[in-house]
Amino acid sequence: MIEEVSAIVTRWAEQEPPHEDYAPHQGGSIHQRSRLREMAELALQNYDGDILEIGCHIGLTTSIFAELAKKYDRRVVVIDPWNGLQEGDESVYQEFKRATKQYEDIIDVNRMLSQSPEAKTVISSGKFAFCWIDGLHTPFACMTDIRSCNGQIGIQAVDDLSWSSEGALKECFYQLANQYGYEHVYDERCREGYYICKGK
Ligand SMILES: C[S@@+](CC[C@H](N)C(=O)[O-])C[C@H]1O[C@@H](n2cnc3c(N)ncnc32)[C@H](O)[C@@H]1O
What residues does ligand 1 touch, defined as CB less than 6 Å away? Predict the structure, then answer.
């Protein structure tokens, strides 16, 4: 699986324009949705379970995941408080609802902080072939989210490694990969990194 994941990352990383051409938080994200689409499909083809998205904003990636989930007869579980933190608020939530309306029968919306006990229960009681961790970008929140997804079998993607918290998220990514024994792929030309998780 690591070869397939690396091949997708490298093929799209080669097409990422230089980070200096963009605002720091945008570097490495120009082809991110193309990578995520291929990665999520690879996960659904190889593992049982649904798709989990932590942090959804207006649902641009959620719509991609929902299209794939429909194709493979799975569901998309989303966790986002839309509480005004990090570009998510009530109007953004309403836009999310509009953007994902055609898939509402296969999307489970959990409007809550992903660090809350309730969200941890949502994650631990689900089975996820693919997890997209893109909520609050503090090291504490990111580490909590990665920890909550530990035990799932499949592919997990963690966003904002290239710029967030002066490199702290990248450190979190590697630290937890070592702790959990995950195979991992992170290409510095991209904003996000990937884990291949074999369960506990
Ligand atoms: C960068 S956006 C997500 C973008 C989306 N995944 C995409 O790729 O199109 C960040 C989202 O994280 C959400 N968020 C903020 N704090 C959060 C938390 N504690 N738990 C989960 N999501 C959170 C915000 O409401 C916002 O919608």
Answer: 54-57, 60-61, 79-82, 85-88, 113-115, 134-136, 141
The per-residue pLDDT string of the chain (200 residues; one tens digit each, 9 = 90 and over) reads 999 999 999 999 999 988 878 878 888 889 999 999 999 999 999 999 999 999 999 999 999 999 999 999 999 999 999 999 888 899 999 999 999 999 999 999 999 999 999 999 999 999 999 999 999 999 999 999 999 999 999 999 999 998 877 789 999 999 999 999 999 999 999 999 999 999 76
Output b/e per residue, 103-114; b: 16+ Cβ within 10 A.
Answer: beebbebbebbb
φ/ψ region of 86 (left if φ > 0, alpha if ψ in -120 to 50, else beta) reads left
Question: Is residue 65 a contact partner of residue 142, using CB atoms and an 8 Å limit?
Answer: no
The structural domain count of the chain equals 1
Give the residue, by CA position, lying nearest to ligand 1 atom 13.
Answer: 55
CATH of the domain at 132: 3.40.50.150
From 136, 161, 190, give the residue whose CB has the most ligand 1 atoms within 8 Å, as the site to mutate. 136
- Domain region containing 139: 2-198
Question: Which residue is closest in CA terms to ligand 1's atom 18?
Answer: 113
CB atoms within 10 A of CB 30: 17
